[in-house]
Automatic annotation (TrEMBL):
The entry's keywords: ATP-binding, Membrane, Nucleotide-binding, Signal, Transmembrane, Transmembrane helix
A GO cellular component annotation in the UniProt record: membrane
Signal peptide: 1-24
PANTHER family linked: ABC TRANSPORTER C FAMILY MEMBER 3, ATP-BINDING CASSETTE SUB-FAMILY C
UniProt protein name: ABC transporter ATP-binding protein/permease VMR1
Family classification: Belongs to the ABC transporter superfamily. ABCC family. Conjugate transporter (TC 3.A.1.208) subfamily.
Entry superkingdom: Eukaryota
ABC transporter domain boundaries: 94-326
Amino acid sequence: MDMLASVTFAFFLIFLISVPEGTIDPGIAGLAVTYGLNLSGVLGWTIRQLCRVENNIISVERILQYTCIASEPPLVIGAHRPDNDWPSHGEVSIHDLQVRYAPHMPLVLRGITCTIPGGMKTGIVGRTGGGKSTLIQTLFRIVEPSAGQILIDGLNISTIGLHDLRSRLSIIPQDPTMFEGTVRSNLDPLEEHTDEQIWEALNKCQLGDKVRKKDGKLDSLVVENGENWSMGQRQLVCLGRVLLKRSQVLVLDEATASVDTATDNLIQQTLRQHFSDSTVITIAHRITSILDSDMVLLLDHGLIVEYDSPSKLLDDRSSLFRKLVAEYTVRSSSSSAN
C-alpha cells in the first residue's frame, strides 16, 4: 500500500513539474503536494474500513444462518413422560429406520430393521461409513430419523422429550470428556450421589487409589479438558460416571479405540462384572472386544448385512464378519512384527 501511494505521489510530482509555467497557481500546487503526503494514510484507512465492513457482513450472514437452523425438540413433553423405571428391560427395537443428515443429502441408514434383546451384549461393526455412529446418534436423537422409528421397551423415543430420553441412557464416548472443576463434580455433576457411592464407583473402575493420593481427594482440581489426567484415566472417569448412573441401556461408542490394551481389558472386565443384566451396545474399533458379545450386528452402506451370534458368523466361511476378523488379525500381526 505504501509503495502504491509513493508511486502515485511521484507521478503527481512529475506532472506538476512538467506542466508549463503559469498553468497552475503555485499555492494550489503546494496545497496539492501537502495533501498528497497524506495519501498513504488515507488509502490505508479506506482499506481497513472496507475490511471491517466485509467482516461485519459475514457476521450478519452467520446470524442469519443460525436463525434458519431448526430448534431441537423440547426437553420434556408433559403429556408423554415415561415411567420412572423406564427402561426396565432395555429392549431396543428398530423398524425401517432411515436417516439422512440434511434434506438434500443421501440416506446414511437405508431402512434397517432389527431388535436388540434386553440384557444382552450387542456389538456393532462395519467398515468406515457403514452407519455405525449414525445409528447411535439416532438412538440419542442427536439426529432425527427421516422415516421409521426406534422403540425402547415398546416406547417410541420420538414421542418423549430429549431430557427424558438422554437421562435414561448412558454412553462412554471415544473421546472422553472432563470438565474444569473437581473429581466429584466430574463424576456426579448433578450432585445426586453420596461420597460413599462415588468412592465405590472409583474403586470399581480402579481409580480409587489414585484419587486417595491426591491432596483434595474428591475435591482435587481437574483442569480444563482433564489435561492433568492421562487419556486412559479420563476414559476410566467416564466409566465411573456410568457406574454411578447404572442405566439399563449402555452405549460404548468405540470407547477403547484411544486407550492401551491394559485399559481396554480393564473396561471390558468391569462392564462384564457390573452390567451383566444391562443392554450393552458396543461400536467396536478392536474387533476382538466384541467377540464375547451375545450378538453381532454388521452394517455396510447403511444396511444390515449380518446379525447373529459371533460364533455362528465365524463358522460361516462366506461371512463378512469373519473376513473383518481375519483382516484385523493380519493387521495386528503386522503391527506387532514392526
